[in-house]
What does this fold into?
Amino acid sequence: WIANTMYVVSQSVGFVFDPLYFKRRVDEAACFRERVQTFIQIYFASLAVVVIPIILFANELSHLLFGSKYPNIGPVAAILLAASYIRVQYPFLAKQLLFKKKTHWLPITTITPSLAALVLTPFVVPFGGLTAVSWLVLLAELTSITAVGLAVLRYEDLEYPTAASAILILVVCATAFWAS
It folds into this structure.
């Protein structure tokens, strides 16, 4: 529920951001790329400030929401929240491919990591159950966002603040690891 809410909010931000983004890209507005990077940095830093405490208290929140019905769901929720944090960043990178009309990369960068996670699932379940599968989901999201970034680089420089986002993703994932 919380991860889905984060995704819905990010989609809404994207819906507001998209028309401006595509108009400014067509117009080649001065300093637009720097503004995009600044916006993305502020947005994902703000999102991390919200997500990290939720991850840290995933066990408590799960107990509060579900009682003893799902006693061990907290670690899974923490990992899936971190995966969702990565996932909501994908559209901001994908916009560059949409603008360049290189949309053939989008299914490649999403379906391939998802299929790999699906194929690996039966092998990791005996070792870690649902928690291990959650880590596979996170790894698929990380692979997906990396792949779309590499696809963008084939055509132009990233408008995405790579270093800042990598640090935030690392912090969020480390928090999930600690909480799980």
